[in-house]
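Appendix C: a fully annotated inverse folding record. The material below is reproduced so that readers can follow the format used throughout the book. The structure is listed first as tokens, followed by the designed sequence.
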């Protein structure tokens, strides 16, 4: 689904006898993608998603701005201007190319045209001022949102062909079991092949598997491995990347054939990770955004996206 780097070919003139005309052609290796992409100073990012080709989107928990850039060139600009008092956490691109945002302290979610930045829809889940709508996963039939302070998932059903529903056509799915643990801080979320959902609990250091029909949940076994500070989740096949923000670690977890448990295979660490929040995959690389949650952000604080081998 992701566009890979083009291969370069040297044309050859074929005839009865192979003849070289003029100087031999030289193939230039493609310029490597930048390992670090600077975001605007003071941006205070949290969510990241990769869209068409090498286009990347990053949202701000400071004012709800969305930055759009190119992973190939490292250049970009603000697509959706920020608004004082607004905030955006998780971002995702759906199969129809629309940009979804979890509106964090705003208690809802929004959908945008990724080209123009025009807002296509808004869903106001709650007016609870303590609510934190944090992350989402998009499936064929619905979009599921976590709330880090409430034991619920918000569900936006999709119509035929992914059609957006009316602004009030969402439901609140109450969680039971370990998914409803008080102060667990439910955060990142992915969908498993059997339809169940996997949710990261940042403060308990565990993952929970949630039935999207009933809200029932159970702890997802990791063989005793703790995913303390788990923030974003990225799933490709049976490999799960758990981005652990203040731990400055990305845990690479291999899931079993039934997707009922997993085992940590390795940890990605290094000075380039500065409280990584969320990420997305492009080819053999994992791109993560550094939220820098260990510092008090100022208008001059630097933020970035970094690329690590997946």
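Designed amino acids, in order:
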């Amino acid at each position: 689904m992701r566009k890979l780097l083009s291969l370069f070919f040297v044309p050859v003139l074929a005839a009865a006898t192979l003849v070289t005309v003029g100087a031999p052609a030289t193939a230039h290796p493609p310029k490597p993608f930048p390992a670090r992409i600077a975001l605007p100073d003071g941006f205070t990012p949290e969510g990241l998603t990769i869209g068409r080709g090498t286009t990347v989107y990053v949202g701000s928990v400071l004012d709800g701005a969305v930055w759009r850039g190119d992973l190939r060139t490292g250049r970009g600009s603000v697509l959706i201007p920020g608004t004082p008092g607004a905030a955006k956490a998780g971002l995702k691109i759906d199969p129809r190319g629309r940009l979804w945002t979890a509106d964090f302290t705003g208690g809802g979610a929004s959908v945008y045209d990724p080209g123009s930045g025009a807002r296509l829809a808004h869903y106001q889940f709650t007016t609870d001022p303590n609510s934190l709508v944090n992350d989402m996963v998009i499936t064929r039939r619905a979009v599921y949102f976590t709330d880090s302070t409430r034991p619920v998932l918000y569900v936006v059903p999709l119509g035929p062909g992914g059609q957006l529903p009316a602004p009030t056509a969402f439901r609140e799915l109450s969680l039971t079991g370990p998914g409803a643990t008080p102060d667990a801080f439910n955060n990142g979320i992915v969908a498993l092949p059997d339809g169940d959902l996997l949710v990261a609990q940042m403060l308990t250091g565990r993952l929970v598997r949630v039935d999207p029909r009933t809200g029932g949940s159970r702890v997802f076994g990791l063989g005793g491995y703790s995913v303390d500070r788990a923030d974003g989740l990225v799933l490709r096949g049976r490999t799960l990347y758990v981005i652990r923000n203040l731990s400055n670690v990305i845990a690479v977890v291999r899931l079993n054939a039934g997707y009922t448990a997993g085992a940590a295979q390795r940890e990605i660490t290094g000075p380039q990770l500065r409280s990584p929040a969320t990420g997305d995959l492009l080819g053999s690389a994992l791109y993560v955004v550094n939220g820098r949650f260990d510092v008090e952000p100022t208008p001059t604080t630097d933020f970035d996206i970094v690329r690590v081998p997946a």
